Here is the input.
Amino acid sequence: MSEPVIRAEILAQAESRGAEKSLCPSEVARALKPEEWRSLMTRVRREAIVLAREGRIEILRKGKPVDPEAEIRGVIRLRIRP
Here is the structure.
């Protein structure tokens, strides 16, 4: 699974939900590799950070945007930037 494919899936899911709703990174991993989605989680999170640094999505922690330059731990959600 290439980085562009992962990024494209993140963007497609985030865009389909709109700026009012967010998604879990596991939803992206499950869409790309239903049987072995857990193995993709680190890569999905890494590509989400890349997209957030580019200003294309926001990474949320406890419902609030986090700085993609900071260390991001724990449960996160993703949403398209308004």
